[in-house]
Design goal:
361 residues; alpha+beta; four-stranded mixed beta sheet; 55% helix; 4 strands
C-alpha cells in the first residue's frame, strides 16, 4: 500500500565506491581500470556527473555486475532527484551555465534564480531557450542565426548574443501573411522620410506599418551588457525579422543600423553564426546599401552647421544623419555638429509600447 520514498537521493556512484572499498581498490586504481580520469570518476561517485551507458558497460566488465544494474541505479537516482526537487548539475550543464552573464539575464527577466542555485539557473535557461539540454541548445543556436550589425572592436559571446535574439523571438506574437520584396523596395523612400518625423509616436507607428505591409516584422530588445549588437536580421519560414537595440542613442546610428538590416533583407538574405564569423563582404554590402539609401551620392564638404541643416533638408534626411556621415567620412571632426543629432529614446519607447499592445490577446 505504501511505497518506500526515501527523503534523500543516493547516487549510483555510492555503490561504485562501496565496491572499490570492498575489493581494496583506491579510487585512482579503479579509474585506471575503467579508462576514466580520477576527476571524472569522482564526479560520478558524488553524483555531479551522470553515469553514462558507456561507463555502465565498463563497470560491468570491471566489477562483474551487469551494465543493466548500473543503468537502473542511475535512472532511480535521477528520478529521486526530480521527485525531491533537487536536480544535480553535471559538468556539461555547469560549463554551459557559466558561459552566460546570469546577472544580466536576471535583470532582464529571463531567469530568477541566484548564483547559489545553479541547477535552477540551468533549468530556467533551458526553459527560456525552449530546449531540453545544452547539447540541444548548441544544435539550435550554434547554427547560423542572424546577420548582425555590431561593433568591430568588441566581440559578443555566442551565448549572450543568442539570449538577446531569443528575447526578440519571444516578442513576435503575430506574423504578416507574406513577404514581398517588391513592396519593401517601394517603401524605402517612405521609410527614409521617417528620419525627419518629429513625432516619435507617429514615426514608430509608420515604421511598423510600412514594414508590416511588406511582410517584415520589427522587434525591439534593449541592448545587453557586453553584447555589442546594434541590430540583427533573421528569417522565419520565409519571413524576415529585423531586431533593433538601443545600443546607440542617436538618430544617425539608429537609422543607419535599421537600413543596414533592410539591406540584409533585400540584398544579402543570408545569416551568420553567433561566433563572429560573418562575411565581411556581406556586411560591407549592407553598409553601402544603408549609406546609398540615406544619402545618395557623395557628400560635399560642409563646415557650418547651418549649411549641414540646409543640405539635410534638401536631400530629405535628418540633420543628425548628415552629421554622422560627414564625421564617418572624416569631413568634419567627431566633436563637430553633435548637437544636430537627435536622441532616439522617445522613438524606442514608442516602439516598445507598440510591441506590448500587439502582444495583448
Amino acid at each position: 500500500m505504501y511505497k518506500y520514498r526515501p527523503e534523500n537521493a543516493v547516487p549510483a556512484g555510492r555503490d561504485i565506491r562501496d565496491w572499490a572499498e570492498e575489493h581494496g581498490l583506491r579510487q585512482g586504481d579503479l579509474a585506471a581500470r575503467l579508462g576514466l580520469s580520477e576527476k571524472g570518476l569522482s564526479q560520478i561517485v558524488t553524483g555531479k556527473a551522470p553515469l553514462s551507458r558507456a561507463t555502465a558497460q565498463r563497470l560491468g566488465l570491471v566489477t562483474g555486475i551487469s551494465a543493466s544494474y548500473w543503468n537502473r541505479r542511475e535512472l532511480v537516482y535521477r528520478e529521486h532527484l526530480d521527485r525531491l526537487g533537487t536536480p544535480s548539475l553535471d559538468a556539461e550543464q555547469a560549463d554551459w551555465v557559466a558561459c552566460f552573464d546570469t546577472n544580466e539575464l536576471k535583470k532582464h527577466g529571463a531567469i530568477t534564480a541566484t548564483g547559489r542555485d545553479k541547477p535552477l539557473q540551468c533549468r530556467e535557461l533551458l526553459s527560456f531557450f525552449a530546449v531540453a539540454s545544452p547539447a540541444a541548445w548548441e544544435r539550435v543556436w550554434q547554427k547560423p542565426q542572424a546577420a548582425f550589425r555590431r561593433s568591430r572592436r568588441l566581440q559578443a559571446t555566442p551565448h549572450m548574443a543568442s539570449a538577446w535574439l531569443r528575447f526578440g523571438e519571444r516578442e513576435i506574437t503575430t506574423w504578416p501573411s507574406f513577404y514581398s520584396q517588391h513592396d519593401l523596395e517601394r517603401s524605402l523612400e517612405r521609410l527614409r522620410q521617417l528620419t525627419r518625423e518629429p513625432d516619435p509616436k507617429a514615426a514608430a507607428r509608420a515604421l511598423h506599418s510600412h514594414l508590416w505591409e511588406a511582410g517584415v516584422s520589427l522587434v525591439f530588445v534593449p541592448a545587453f551588457r557586453r553584447v555589442p549588437i546594434a541590430a540583427a536580421t533573421r528569417w522565419f519560414n520565409g519571413r524576415p525579422v529585423i531586431q533593433m537595440s538601443d545600443r546607440h542613442k542617436t538618430d544617425d546610428h539608429f537609422w543607419f543600423s535599421f537600413f543596414h538590416e533592410v539591406g540584409h533583407v533585400l540584398e544579402s538574405p543570408t545569416i551568420d553564426t553567433l561566433e563572429g564569423t560573418e562575411s565581411i563582404e556581406i556586411e560591407r554590402q549592407a553598409d553601402a546599401f544603408a549609406a546609398q539609401v540615406l544619402i545618395p551620392g557623395a557628400l560635399p564638404r560642409l563646415r557650418r552647421l547651418s549649411d549641414i541643416e540646409e543640405y539635410a533638408e534638401g536631400v530629405g534626411v535628418s540633420a543628425g544623419i548628415a552629421v554622422g556621415r560627414l564625421q564617418h567620412e572624416g569631413k568634419i571632426r567627431r566633436d563637430v555638429g553633435n548637437r544636430l543629432k537627435s536622441k532616439v529614446s522617445d522613438l524606442v519607447r514608442e516602439l516598445t509600447v507598440l510591441q506590448r499592445v500587439a502582444a495583448q490577446p
